[in-house]
Design brief:
Layout: H1 7-18, E1 35-43, E2 48-60, E3 63-67, E4 82-85, E5 94-99, E6 102-107, E7 112-118, E8 124-132, E9 135-143, E10 149-159
Antiparallel strand pairs: 1-2, 1-10, 2-3, 3-4, 5-6, 6-7, 7-8, 8-9, 9-10
Length: 160
């Protein structure tokens, strides 16, 4: 069983921390996340990629659940859904969360997502992206243990 060590799984968690961005920037809330995020990832250097789907739900105003169990980005999906709690993982302005070897930060005022971590192949990565409305776009730079760098692009759209 794989754990959450992929920059692409970071996307799933980033979306959970992100909410939706709008011109007026309403407070970050669990209810704005509910839906299915479907997208693609493409690793440009090593020529791999594919589709992914992550389901985000809000059981109540204080709880966000991210189900990435069927999203495989080359390191396996999340072993179990991840639960994020208001006041611990996020506030009305955004949030920072650490999940296994992934650390993510989201800023509600500009929709920016930043992340760092390591993956199942022993590499490290950095992610930068942005949420605009129901769209997420991002870029990840991965460094292999031998020092070679790879670049990935990520795109996702949310549907209710």
């Amino acid at each position: 069983m794989h754990t959450t060590r992929s920059p692409f799984l970071a996307l799933a968690l980033a979306l959970a921390l992100a909410g939706t961005a709008s011109a007026k920037k309403p407070p970050f809330a669990a209810t704005t996340l509910a839906g299915t995020w479907t997208g693609t990832w493409k690793e440009i250097t090593f020529h791999v990629g594919g589709p992914f789907t992550v389901v985000i739900s809000a059981a109540d105003a204080d709880t966000i659940t991210v189900d990435g169990t069927s999203a495989d980005f080359g390191c396996g999906g999340l072993a179990t859904p991840v639960v994020l709690k208001r006041g611990v993982d996020w506030t009305e302005t955004g949030g920072t969360g650490t999940f296994d070897t992934i650390t993510l930060t989201f800023r509600q005022k500009n929709g920016k997502v930043k992340g760092t971590g390591s993956n199942c192949h022993g590499t490290t990565w950095k992610l930068k992206g942005r949420v605009r409305g129901n769209k997420f776009t991002g870029r990840s730079v991965t460094k292999t243990f031998s020092g070679k760098s790879g670049i990935s692009t990520l795109k996702a759209t949310r549907t209710p």
